[in-house]
Write a structure and sequence with these properties.
Keywords: Membrane, Transmembrane, Transmembrane helix. By secondary structure, this protein is mainly alpha-helical. It contains 2 helices and no strands.
Length: 67
């Protein structure tokens, strides 16, 4: 029952979110590099889509307060 108390529940949530944030940011970076490689070696028309996706991902990371 003690894990439901207000003293232990919030730090557990903060620890879990910080533990999940690292792989999430790493996944974003890997996706951006994969998109950059694809755009560089394939069609030029995918360039606009790449920048739109990278901008959305970057703003998403900024909103999470990590960068």
């Amino acid at each position: 029952m003690s894990w439901r108390s207000s003293t232990g529940y919030l730090p557990a949530n903060q620890y879990l979110s910080s533990w999940l944030m690292g792989p999430l940011i790493a996944g974003h970076v890997v996706l951006l590099f994969q998109w950059g490689f694809f755009v560089h070696h394939h069609a030029n028309r995918a360039n606009l889509l790449h920048w739109v996706i990278s901008a959305i991902l970057f703003l998403h990371v900024v909103e999470m307060g990590q960068w």
